[in-house]
Amino acid sequence: MSVEHASMRIIDGYARGGAELAADEVWALEAHLETCRVCRDRLSDAVAAQAPTVAALVDSVWSGLEPQLAAAAPMPRRRYWSARLSRWLTPTMVPWLVMVVGVTLLALLFDLSDTGYGEVSLVLLLAPVLPVLGVAASWARGLDPAYELTASVPRAGLYLVLRRTASVLAMVVPALAVGGWVTGVMVAQWLLPCLAFTSATLALGGVIGVTRAAVAMAGAWAAVVLAPTLAAARTTFALQTGSLPVWGLILALGIGVVIARRGAYSVLGTHR
């Protein structure tokens, strides 16, 4: 497929049923057809020429639907914005995002009330794993009753992964920013680990599934950093400014792996 339009070979093959095309060609064409009217018209002409029975069936169905669609009331503005919001969020994500923000505020209260953890900031300590919990919720098969429909659409791959991850970060990062500002923690000190952990989760999610990756990363953080830090009541190297180059490297590597394995997010396995 060219940069601008699909080739006639792919369009003709798709019009004949797509059996002769590779799976990634079918996926790419369907995603391209969503935004390219020229290729939709070319596909329509190809179907009319090579599959007249299918074209006749479509015309018959359309002739029955057209009067009903013409008489239908326009979508209410509230439903319109709800439909647009659903591209970024699922209803099952909302309670989890509220919980994540609530945990952030609770950690801030502990930081301000001198809970006995010495120099350790709970906001800083929890910053890397909080967005991971939201990402896990956004891809959990058990929490999304429409996951099969979602995973079957042409843009269910990396495009949707990044949208849902961005929606999680849009909720979590401002809450962490407030917590960091109030407690005097440098922005890079919590933001870099937060983004690095999220990118690493997505990178690992392309192999074992996003939800499993999130649980594994959160468990590893709790065992390797969280528990020892609270036990020693002092900030470990992983949370100090000297570790920022390491977090930057992890972030860059995670983004690189996600881009290199972008096709892995188009299968149902990433919802595990």
From TrEMBL:
The chain crosses the membrane at residues 88-110, 122-140, 161-182, 188-208, 215-233, 245-264. It comes from the Bacteria. It comes from Streptomyces yaanensis. This is Zf-HC2 domain-containing protein. Keywords: Membrane, Transmembrane, Transmembrane helix.
